[in-house]
Specification:
single chain, alpha/beta, three-stranded antiparallel beta sheet, binds adenosine-5'-triphosphate, binds magnesium ion
């Protein structure tokens, strides 16, 4: 069963072709890192999967639902690349407000739980506008998880987090039984969060497979970053 399916999707911003007939599928339960050079179309792909952008052409399904349907929105937890919770609300108010909008049944316990695991309790009354960038990111992660999503679509989730918090978030995400597509530029993050990789470049699928297969494509003892860079660079040389 596929939880994410994207088929022949193209998307232009004005004259810029951000996605060029891209297709891939993700089976339910699999966790993928989405890799690609700057401007490859990662954030555009994730926004389309989250139902925030409409493709110009092609088909997108979340399980069997269109991404902008209520069913898909219940399934998906989306973390945008520059997540900004409501600035005039406090940390707690953001969690309670978004949780209520989403109809979270165990809202009270959920808010307490998220305040604890993301170490936000000391800031619960602080307005988002007064938070550091890292604490804002922790709140954005908590908001993306508040409704117990089954599929997470996270754009560079560890941005701005200090090292202990990065470890904590990796452990939190690994403890959840999720289908995941997570964009990152940091291979060590990809290796710890996922077992598989989707690589895109210039709006097209470059490679999809397991990290084990990816390692086999390199020389002995070659760093995984070097293998990834080679695949991405070859795309620029050969096309
Ligand atoms: N709102 C927009 N208006 C115009 N062009 C855009 C817009 N958003 C993205 N683009 C362009 O679309 C292409 C893909 O952008 P996208 O943000 O999806 O890349 P990305 O892979 O997420 O890059 P990065 O690694 O830098 O985050 C780029 O050429 C970018 O300049
Ligand atoms: Mg991006």
């Amino acid at each position: 069963m596929n939880c994410i399916e994207i088929e022949n999707v193209s998307k232009k911003y004005g004259k810029v072709l951000a996605l060029n007939n891209i297709s891939f599928k993700i089976q339910c339960g699999d966790k993928y890192a989405l890799l690609g050079p700057n401007g490859a179309g990662k954030s555009t792909t994730l926004k389309i999967l989250a139902g925030l952008l409409k493709p110009d052409q092609g088909k997108v399904s979340i399980l069997v639902y269109p991404p902008d349907s209520i069913e898909a929105r219940k399934l998906i937890g989306y973390l945008p690349e520059d997540a900004s919770p409501y600035r005039v609300l406090s940390v707690r108010e953001n969690l309670e407000y978004i949780g209520a909008l989403r109809g979270v049944e165990d809202l009270h316990e959920r808010v307490e739980f998220l305040l604890d695991i993301f170490e936000l309790r000391e800031y619960e009354k602080a307005k988002v506008s007064s938070l550091s960038r890292g604490n804002r990111q922790k709140l954005a992660l908590a908001l993306a998880l508040i409704h117990h999503p089954k599929i997470i679509i996270f754009d560079e989730p560890l941005n701005y987090l200090d090292i202990p918090m990065q470890e904590k978030v990796i452990n939190i995400l690994n403890s959840l039984n999720l289908t995941a597509l997570i964009s990152t530029h940091i291979m060590s993050v990809a290796l710890r969060l996922t077992k598989r990789v989707i690589m895109i470049s210039r709006g097209r699928l470059l490679w999809q497979g397991s990290i084990e297969e990816l390692k086999k494509m390199g020389e002995e003892h070659e760093q995984i970053e070097s293998i990834v860079a080679r695949i991405m660079n070859n795309d620029f040389k050969t096309n």
